[in-house]
Amino acid sequence: MLLRGAEQAMVRAKTAVLKPVGLTLAQFVALGELEKRPGITAATLARACLVTPQAIMVLLKTLEDQGLVSRSPHERHSNVLELNMTKVGREALHTARKVVDPVERRVIGAFSSKEVGELRALLIRFSEAFEAD
For the domain with range 2-130, which CATH number is right: 1.10.510.10, 1.10.10.10, 1.10.3720.10, 2.40.400.10? Predict the structure, then answer.
């Protein structure tokens, strides 16, 4: 329950600062993934964002309607659509980061440098425990 509460607090804080920017947290995460991996498919984006293919299609429709992403046929596989951020999408992501970054810095600022290092190590171990199978 402790991790769930921490996650919910983070989601609430990020959601609150993203609302005036006109993005949801899910849209922000999806744009961040598209920045890292331009040209990916909806299925790949869904896996990266930890949502179902159906959920990503709804999200992409909204992003496309807002002019933040574009879909185009893959050059070798005509039935596969590639996703890319538009110029407007890159600007929206840049604006969103300006409001999300202070939230993340505030959290990190609550810890000493030593504690940040310890927390990082603990979270790595936490993540690795799920991959131990």
Answer: 1.10.10.10
